[in-house]
Design brief:
CATH superfamily of the largest domain: Isopropylmalate Dehydrogenase
CATH class of the largest domain: Alpha Beta
Strand order of the largest sheet: 3-2-1-4-11-10-5-6-9-7-8
Catalytic activity: a fatty acyl-[ACP] + phosphate = an acyl phosphate + holo-[ACP]
Helix content: 40-55%
Largest sheet: 11 strands, mixed
Subcellular location: Cytoplasm
GO molecular function: ligase activity; phosphate:acyl-[acyl carrier protein] acyltransferase activity
Order of helices and strands: EHEHEHEHEEHEHEEHHEEHH
Strand content: 5-15%
Shape: globular
Protein name: Phosphate acyltransferase
Organism: Sulfurovum xiamenensis
Radius of gyration: 20 Å
Length: 329
């Protein structure tokens, strides 16, 4: 049975939504959750029926969002440190955390270790697209200062993830730039372009709009750009929904139309852009699996982060990454 280590203390709202998400996941998937944190608190939120369906590992410390990421290496009694150690020691196949993302990435990279041929891991996220399959974007915050080699490795990791998890046989990989022409870009992207040409799925430069129009399946960028892109996109979505509500309230015909479309149209739109639908971002390139969720994750997000960890563990993503990079050495 697949074992998933879960940082039960790391979210903004304490262990309650995390444990609720674990319970929801257990209702549909067969796996063993290993909850790491304050035993007494965990048990207080765990329904008695599920008491024998989980394991609990005591952790007396919690790394807060205001702490330095590098401090995590010293705080060996923290919930995230102990959760990552379970993966390092092969006592769990994956770790899921809604806690300090920097601490999780630091610990996963240094304690679990990187895959062969990977110089830096990348944080990947799925973005909404007009086609049925979402677009994978990486890196969105793990590596702010990238080299061309980093971007090349990100492309290989994204291609492997799209094949193994998204089920796309021949994914199209694009390099985010300020124009689709081969000559466009800055010093970093121009050098990365040449390296990425070694990937079978590389189609060249893409622009920001290509993330959402379905032209490519994977978009590669440095973590600084990717993080700004991610947060800007979240802001745009929030603003659009706010503006829609404002205009609907001002017009009776709009209110009637909105009521008629509420379930089908608006419901599907919200599902497309709702972070909780996929739950977290995988840290690609480590010798294991780490899913990093928002600190504000609700139970649904945690449940789906666990599902993502299970699918990742059952797949050949890491093996495919190794093959792609070793073949192109």
């Amino acid at each position: 049975m697949i074992k998933i280590a879960i940082d039960a203390m790391g979210g903004d709202f304490g262990p309650e939504p995390i444990i609720e998400g674990v319970v929801q996941a257990l209702e549909t998937e067969k796996f063993l959750p290993i909850l790491v944190g304050n035993t007494e608190e965990i048990r207080s939120f765990l329904p008695p029926y599920y008491a024998d369906k989980v394991e609990i590992v005591e952790a007396s410390d919690v790394i807060s969002m205001s702490d330095q990421a590098t401090d995590a290496l010293k705080r060996k009694e923290s919930s995230i440190y102990k959760a990552v150690e379970l993966v390092r020691e092969k006592e769990a196949s994956a770790v899921v955390s809604a806690g300090h993302s920097g601490a999780t990435m630091t610990l996963a990279t240094l304690r679990i270790g990187r895959l062969p041929h990977i110089s830096k891991p990348a944080l990947a996220t799925l973005m909404p697209s007009v086609v049925s399959t979402k677009t994978l974007v990486l890196d969105v915050g793990a590596v702010t200062d990238c080299t061309p080699q980093n971007l090349y490795e990100f492309g290989a990791m994204g291609e492997a993830y799209a094949q193994q998890i998204l089920g796309i046989a021949s994914p199209k990989v694009g390099l985010l730039s300020n124009g689709s022409e081969d000559s466009k870009g800055n010093t970093l992207t121009k050098a990365a372009f040449k390296l990425l040409q070694g990937l079978k799925g590389f189609v060249g430069n893409v622009e920001g709009r290509d993330i959402f129009n379905g032209n490519v399946n994977v978009v590669v960028c440095d973590g600084f750009t990717g993080n700004i892109l991610l947060k800007t996109s979240e802001g745009v979505v929030s603003t659009i929904f706010t503006l829609m509500r404002q205009h609907i309230r001002k017009s009776l015909p709009a209110k009637i139309g909105a009521l008629m479309m509420k379930r089908k149209v608006f419901g599907n739109m919200k599902k497309q852009v709702d972070y909780a639908e996929y739950g977290g971002a995988p840290l690609l390139g480590i010798n294991g699996c780490a899913i990093i969720s928002h600190g504000s994750s609700n139970a649904k997000a945690i449940k789906n982060a666990i599902f993502q960890a299970i699918r990742y563990t059952e797949s050949d993503v890491n093996k495919t990454i190794e093959i792609l990079l070793s073949d192109n050495k």
